[in-house]
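Need tokens for this chain, all 448 residues.
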Amino acid sequence: MDPNSDKNLDKADSLTLFGAVSLGTAVMIGAGIFAITGQAASLAGPWFPLAFLGAAIVVAFSAYTYVKLSNAFPSSGGIAMFLKEQYGLGAITGIFSMFMYVSMVVNESLVSRTFGSYLLQIIPLKPLSFWVPALGVTLLAIAFLVNITSNKVIQSTEGILAGVKILGLLIFAIAGIWLMSYSNLINKSNETSFTFSFEGFLAAVALCVLAYKGFTTITNSGGEIVEPKKNTGRAIIIAIGICFITYTLIALAVAGNLSLKKIISAQDFALAEAARPAFGNFGIWFTVIIAIVATSSGVIASVFAASRMLAMLTKMKEVPRKDIDMFDDLRTQTLIYTIAIAMLLTIFFDLRRIAALGAIFYLIMDIAIHWGLIHKLKGKVKFNKYIVWFAIILDSIILVAFIWVKTKSDIFIIYTSLIGIAVIVIAEILFMRSHTDSDGKMHMEMDN
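Here are the structure tokens for all 448 residues:
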């Protein structure tokens, strides 16, 4: 293998501010509103629009830490490099970086299955148990082909798709709100088919955080963004703001056009179902087309970020490098591994369990990032410790509530999460030992 083949993995100044915002919103909107709305309603009941607001508040406090770290350490390693600066090279950085990587790959699987669920609303293929994952795997294959091209191609693709889907969703939201039944919206809290619980609402907030966490995609491209110390933070703030406005309008449109019972029963394709009362078949087709655009761009952007993160972890010697004979560059190899894992998740897990895995792994990693800023970078990075502590408290509250709710409703996913955590921790510890000499020194020199 040519050792110089990885040097062009990341090209400085190859992503503009617009491109970075497009990547962030592509992941956020692709994964968020289409996949999460119905699931949030099943947990929070009639108050699910407020769950999106609650998640926006949680993410806003979290974003403060990422903006500070992005300004201090702009890099295409993103979160992996933040953890390195906080905890140093070694098992801790590897463990929490892999938690983030897993949550990103889970997101790809989540969006891929959402793509299949929506497409099947206009193409009546049976059985759904086969075609939903089959269509999801097809989308992942297309995302791989797009991602082996240059950043300019990805940026152009994402810019067009992001613009189309945001415009389409705003049209859906504004028209849905204009034509919605206000009595349906007001009377939703009186529905007797749902028993509200505060822990259920907090669990919905935890799930809705997945709809915003795509902003971390921007940090994974920090070394490629034009003027990264200025534009990385700006891109994060702009992307969160765009998504908050979009989610709020759409949640209100869905709540105003469907009963809670219908939202929950159609939770895998709630937006398409919400378009039916006001727009009929035209509304369904319009919504499905926007969903296809949104989920496609979401998968492309998420694969872009996750594969780069895995490449950085490989160069940092936090994960083992296994070369593939057919491909001699690290970027393509990490793309293949990322796509392969996402395909397996798409095939074997449904939307609810995929989303649960993503929420648990992401929130644990997020707490570690905040903790590292407070306890490891004090004096090196200027920040307000009270804001960061509040972010830790918010993350902890919704994570505990989410685990508690899932323990009662789906203990299998809790066991799966624990097994996944154990595998990552044990594998990282054993791998660290593989390049530790007899004097106890780890050889963690970065590969070129």
